[in-house]
Amino acid sequence: MEKELRYGYVDDLYETVMGRKKPAALDRLEEWFPGMIVTEETSDDKTRTAARYDDREDRIHAVRVNGKLYTSDNDRIAQITGRLIGTASSNKEKERRTAERIQKRLAAEIAEDSSTAAGLLDNVYAHLTEMNNEQIQRFYEAVFGYALGLITVEEGESTLFPMDEEVYSRIVYNAVYQLHTGTGGGLANAWLWLLCGGLLRSEAGRITRIYDSAWTPLFREEGITRSLADKVDYLLHPEDYEPYYWGDDTGKRFPGIAWYCDGCGAHLDEQKGFDDRLPEWKCTACGTVNTIDITHIYENEQDYRSGAGPVNARQYYAAVDKRRKE
Questions:
Q1: Is residue 145 part of a domain?
Q2: Strands 38-41 and 59-65
Q3: Which terminus of the chain has fewer Cβ atoms in its 10 Å neighbourhood, N or C?
Q4: Do 149 and 174 touch, CB atoms closer than 8 A?
Q5: pLDDT at residue 270 greater than cutoff 70
């Protein structure tokens, strides 16, 4: 298996587990992003008809015959779809620009309408329900192995819609984070992140700024503080790390902690009169009463939303105490 984030490589994992012959490019796109890239037209005589691309809609139109979407020998359509799934080898600038416009439209649609992301995730769940327990386990192992293999890939060396290094790291980490939960929901979320990263490529940054690892709209962007390899290693093997606090605000009750409202997501630290020594704080924006306590501190936004649990109190206090004594 290629160790590169490409839509075609990601989809191959599913096809292999299901024991299916690799579908045509149009079918591979339609399977996970139904109606967003390929739209169907009717054919009265039920014969194979050439696919076409409409520049006004940034979509590819095709005819379904006997359950399959068909592209003809039209070289342009083949090159556009090939670039989208990551298999095109030629350097046709017009087709590259067309694929790029499609990616921009898709990224905007997913970022601006949360129901679109929810629909894509529902589609993934529908596919998973068609698997038996053995297939689910094999699929989980294949996806996890693929995601871990992406950690050491130098994404900047890619020439096909190169992805920003920070965006690439976020997508791979989101996938590993979700798979690490060992749940069906984690598998579905991880799979969609890999599909979106492989398809949207240089446009994927738009969705990483909007959604967390569970495809839930974000209130804020999590800071990037470690390399991708270190973050994944800490996620999988936290016992190998000694917590250390680097900040200088040790006069606070909870140094280094940013407090956000559970109701509206407002930054409580910025509200007039807020003090982390208080047992609770009523948000001045929405009125929600927030508990200010160690049991309500999470490593990051992902842990808070996924139910992974709050920070280890003993480790947190030990790290802060060590810093205060320096």
A1: yes
A2: parallel
A3: C
A4: no
A5: yes
